[in-house]
Amino acid sequence: MPFSHHSHSGQFCAHAKSTLEEVVQDAIAKGFHTFALTEHIPRPIEDLYPEEVGKQQEPRDGTQVVNLIQTDRHTAESLAKLFDDFLIEAERVREAYASQIKLLIGFESEWIRPSTHQTIKSIMERYTFDFFMGSIHHCHTIPIDFDRAAYEKARDAAGGTDEQLFQDYFDEQYEMLQALKPPVVGHFDLIRLFSDHREANFKGMEGVWKRMQRNLEYIASYDGVLELNSAGLRKGLAEPYPCSSVCLAFLRQGGRFVMSDDSHGTEQVATNYPRLLQYMQRVGISEIFYVDREASPKDSRVSAGFSCITVDKLLQLPFWTRAR
């Protein structure tokens, strides 16, 4: 009965695969209790990833498609409509599978340029979400998790060193936190993915640690929750997001955590969850929180609150006998 608070589908995300319904069906088959549908907010055309530009439809079963998006034809209006279509389909799927799984409907933010904030405000004025995830994937408007070349471009823009880019990343993250106060903070230390210090736990970077500590204190001050994201393991990191030193710092502040697989299609649903469980035990996380539509929200902007389960009880669930 584990939980994931972060997923994407090829139906509504051009760098993912599978339809939204296929992702949900796979989550059911793997024994999830709660699974969140959190497609990205519409991004400006200039902020699409290189792999998203000009992507063609991929055939499946002769007549259907895995990915319904043709980004070479996108406009700002078509991207906005795609997000609207996601919410309609998410509601349909939630109702269709209500007896088998608890589905949450939210979104994953971006934080790229001033217009991004207005996009998020507009979305939240139009719709009600169970929760949302505050993430950033860019620094100096350059994607830092796409490939090494893009990371190096961002690093050059920051002054040429990992440490300088890390500092800028956590400053931009702090701006996002202050503006949005997201209930869940996504992949807190994503910035380390392509860095030369990806496994160093930010050792010796006093300026970076000062900024991370500030951000963690701010998240704790409004009862925000950090995402434990197993995608870091899938992408070759020794530890998930966030790394152990960040988790320990947040635990000292009484910080709370949720679980996520950050899946981008059925092949990634629940991937590395056994390793994520072992990591939680090693770091000393004793309870896991999850967004619960039956719990009263403390945040008036969303419709769901949080519940929790101890890691000891989580460990006893049958899910782990079939998880990857």
Offer a few descriptive terms.
PHP_dom, 324 residues, globular, amino-acid biosynthesis, three-stranded parallel beta sheet, TIM Barrel, 10 helices, 15 strands, four-stranded parallel beta sheet, alpha/beta, Histidinol-phosphatase, histidine biosynthesis
Structure report:
The protein is globular, with a radius of gyration of 19 Å. It has one domain (3-321): Metal-dependent hydrolases (TIM Barrel, Alpha-Beta Barrel), CATH 3.20.20.140. β10, α6 and β11 form a beta-alpha-beta unit. It is built from 10 helices and 15 strands. α4 packs across α5 and α5 runs parallel beside α6. The relative contact order is 0.15. By secondary structure, it is of the alpha/beta class. Strands 7-10-11-12 form a 4-stranded parallel beta sheet. Strands 1-3-6 form a 3-stranded parallel beta sheet, covered by helices on one side. Mean pLDDT is 92; it is low at 55-68. The longest helix is centred in the N-terminal third of the chain and has 21 residues, at 76-96.
